[in-house]
Amino acid sequence: MGKTILYRLFGIGSVPKKLLPILEKEGIVALDEGISGWFITRNVKGPGKRCLQRWEGFSGCLVITKERVLCYTYWKRQINIAVHDPKISGLYVDVPNEQKLHISFEASHYRKGWEGIIEFQFNTEKALLFRDAFLSIGAQSSTAPDAQKHALP
């Protein structure tokens, strides 16, 4: 899988430069940047927000260190959770093929007042490495309830 054009031209979807030394100090287990993917929400409701279904492409990065899981889409932080946080068990990880990684979760598990399914679909050559890293820290091997009904082919 190649890197996105936005990453190759402008560095969009890279790990923030001032964060990289911190992540290296924490001990990087898996890292990929400039990867394309989809940010998908289904029946998400929160304070002042309602979204029946939304699909948004992105260029982003995904990092697992010995201390945290971190995901950025474009330059926006989407996931930042400690690997020892009990909420990590609320992440569902699926690898439909060797170059696709899906991470899904119920929004209420992470934010009070929110509900619905949030899913990230990454196109990465390191999908199996990420899956194994996620499973070793306590994530579940599956897709979040209702996520499998609406997966991209």
Q: If you had to describe this structure to a student in words, what would you say it looks like?
A:
- The chain has 153 residues and is of the alpha+beta class.
- It has one domain (5-150): Roll (PH-domain like).
- Helices cover 15% and strands 48% of the residues.
- The chain has helices at 5-10, 20-26, 127-136, and strands at 28-46, 49-65, 68-73, 76-82, 92-97, 100-106, 115-123, 140-141.
- The chain has an 8-stranded mixed beta sheet.
- β3 (68-73) and β4 (76-82) form a beta hairpin.
- The longest helix is centred in the last third of the chain and has 10 residues, at 127-136.
- The radius of gyration is 15 Å and the shape is globular.
- Residues 148-153 have low confidence and may be disordered.
